[in-house]
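[step 3/7] fold_predict: job queued, chain A
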Amino acid sequence: MEKNNKKKIGIGAGMSLGLIAVVMVVANMATNVIDPAEIIEKETEWQTIYVWTPTGENIPAAEAGGFMSCFLLDFGQVPETVLQNNATDWDTAGGGTVHGYADTDGWNEDAVSDDPFYVVVRARFTETQAKSGGTWDGSRCRVTITASGDETISQTVCGNDTAETYGGGIESENNSDYNHLYINFYFDDNDDGYVIADDGSLTIDSIVIEAKY
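[step 4/7] structure written:
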């Protein structure tokens, strides 16, 4: 009788260990499936949504974000106030405050020499690109510009709706009921404004628009 009891205990213990092993495997599988850190990281990467070519005024397709216009804003203006204007055509809306407005493709625009300015890029973003929890988040948007000639520019500005050392992204239309967020990004040399000398030039080499999603 004692021998039989010992056999039963041995089998029971072995079965118990087997069950524990199965439970541990299932638990590990579940953990791998719902790893929140991995999911968040994949959803918040900076992604390029537009690489600029010499385009004048532009309206992105209905479901797209991207470039809308590029112009020079007079350095005497207060960008974080003036650029709240949601006008599409800044050549008209800017009046005497805007020059060098690019309205045609492959543009080569005239600008007043020795007259300091900010470079402005107007861009639009979709809900996928810039909306979080039903609210627009301009800090998930940014523009990088490079330029050469009388001035050398290589700068990235985020759309945080504030003035920064080298510019800022000023929201001109932020309405949670609308399908797009509009931001005017301005670039500042943190000195006395960008200037083109007499008979000089400024060449916009590249504009890259990105969103974090």
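[step 5/7] annotate
Confidence is low (pLDDT under 50) at residues 1-31.
The first helix runs from residue 2 to 33.
exit 0
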